[in-house]
Write a structure and sequence with these properties.
Layout (H helix, E strand, L loop, with lengths): L1 H8 L5 E6 L4 H17 L4 E6 L4 H6 L7 E6 L2 E7 L4 H11 L1
Parallel strand pairs: 1-2
Antiparallel strand pairs: 1-3, 3-4
Helix pairs in contact: 2-4
InterPro entries: Thioredoxin, Thioredoxin-like_sf, Thioredoxin_domain
Family: Belongs to the thioredoxin family.
Organism: Chryseobacterium elymi
Length: 99
Protein backbone atom coordinates (compact mmCIF):
# COMPACT_ATOMS: atom_id res chain seq x y z
CA UNK A 1 0.00 0.00 0.00
CA UNK A 2 2.75 2.52 0.81
CA UNK A 3 4.12 2.36 -2.76
CA UNK A 4 0.60 2.74 -4.14
CA UNK A 5 -0.05 5.53 -1.60
CA UNK A 6 3.04 7.41 -2.84
CA UNK A 7 1.83 7.11 -6.44
CA UNK A 8 -1.61 8.43 -5.44
CA UNK A 9 -0.34 11.48 -3.54
CA UNK A 10 2.19 12.34 -6.27
CA UNK A 11 -0.74 13.11 -8.57
CA UNK A 12 -1.07 16.44 -10.41
CA UNK A 13 -4.68 16.43 -9.23
CA UNK A 14 -5.29 17.22 -5.56
CA UNK A 15 -5.96 14.13 -3.45
CA UNK A 16 -8.02 14.28 -0.26
CA UNK A 17 -7.06 11.46 2.09
CA UNK A 18 -9.64 10.47 4.70
CA UNK A 19 -7.81 8.70 7.54
CA UNK A 20 -10.58 6.77 9.30
CA UNK A 21 -11.38 3.74 11.45
CA UNK A 22 -14.34 1.39 11.05
CA UNK A 23 -15.27 1.73 14.75
CA UNK A 24 -15.30 5.56 14.65
CA UNK A 25 -18.79 7.16 14.62
CA UNK A 26 -17.63 10.64 13.48
CA UNK A 27 -15.81 8.88 10.60
CA UNK A 28 -19.15 7.55 9.36
CA UNK A 29 -20.56 11.10 9.36
CA UNK A 30 -17.45 12.37 7.52
CA UNK A 31 -17.79 9.59 4.96
CA UNK A 32 -21.30 10.69 3.95
CA UNK A 33 -20.07 14.31 3.73
CA UNK A 34 -17.25 13.19 1.42
CA UNK A 35 -19.75 11.50 -0.92
CA UNK A 36 -21.38 14.90 -1.48
CA UNK A 37 -18.00 16.62 -1.83
CA UNK A 38 -17.09 14.08 -4.56
CA UNK A 39 -20.30 14.96 -6.42
CA UNK A 40 -19.47 18.67 -6.13
CA UNK A 41 -15.82 18.41 -7.18
CA UNK A 42 -16.19 15.74 -9.90
CA UNK A 43 -12.87 14.99 -11.61
CA UNK A 44 -11.19 18.03 -10.03
CA UNK A 45 -9.80 15.93 -7.18
CA UNK A 46 -9.56 12.38 -5.88
CA UNK A 47 -10.86 11.25 -2.50
CA UNK A 48 -9.17 8.22 -0.96
CA UNK A 49 -9.99 6.48 2.32
CA UNK A 50 -7.19 4.98 4.45
CA UNK A 51 -8.13 2.73 7.38
CA UNK A 52 -5.65 3.58 10.17
CA UNK A 53 -6.06 0.11 11.68
CA UNK A 54 -5.08 -1.58 8.41
CA UNK A 55 -2.31 0.90 7.53
CA UNK A 56 -0.87 2.20 10.83
CA UNK A 57 2.53 2.98 9.25
CA UNK A 58 1.01 5.43 6.77
CA UNK A 59 -1.05 7.07 9.52
CA UNK A 60 2.06 7.38 11.71
CA UNK A 61 4.15 8.74 8.83
CA UNK A 62 1.75 11.67 8.47
CA UNK A 63 1.22 12.26 12.19
CA UNK A 64 -2.38 11.05 12.32
CA UNK A 65 -3.24 10.80 16.01
CA UNK A 66 -7.02 10.90 15.85
CA UNK A 67 -9.76 9.97 13.41
CA UNK A 68 -11.18 11.28 11.26
CA UNK A 69 -8.18 13.20 9.96
CA UNK A 70 -8.29 14.68 6.49
CA UNK A 71 -5.22 15.60 4.44
CA UNK A 72 -4.83 17.16 0.99
CA UNK A 73 -1.82 16.25 -1.17
CA UNK A 74 -0.76 17.46 -4.60
CA UNK A 75 2.45 16.49 -6.40
CA UNK A 76 3.50 14.57 -3.27
CA UNK A 77 3.29 17.65 -1.06
CA UNK A 78 1.07 17.84 2.04
CA UNK A 79 -0.90 21.06 1.54
CA UNK A 80 -3.45 20.82 4.36
CA UNK A 81 -4.27 18.51 7.27
CA UNK A 82 -6.88 18.70 10.03
CA UNK A 83 -8.60 16.32 12.41
CA UNK A 84 -12.33 16.27 13.07
CA UNK A 85 -15.46 16.31 10.95
CA UNK A 86 -15.63 18.97 8.24
CA UNK A 87 -18.65 20.17 6.29
CA UNK A 88 -19.36 19.86 2.56
CA UNK A 89 -18.83 23.54 1.69
CA UNK A 90 -15.50 23.85 3.51
CA UNK A 91 -14.07 20.75 1.82
CA UNK A 92 -15.46 21.59 -1.62
CA UNK A 93 -13.93 25.08 -1.49
CA UNK A 94 -10.65 23.69 -0.17
CA UNK A 95 -10.33 21.24 -3.04
CA UNK A 96 -11.31 23.88 -5.64
CA UNK A 97 -8.58 26.10 -4.23
CA UNK A 98 -5.93 23.44 -4.91
CA UNK A 99 -7.37 22.12 -8.20
Amino acid sequence: MSQKFQEIINSERPVLIDFFATWCQPCKVQSSVLNTVKENIGDGARIIKVDVDQYPAIAAQYGVRGVPTLAVFKNGELLWKESGVHDVNTLTELLKQYA
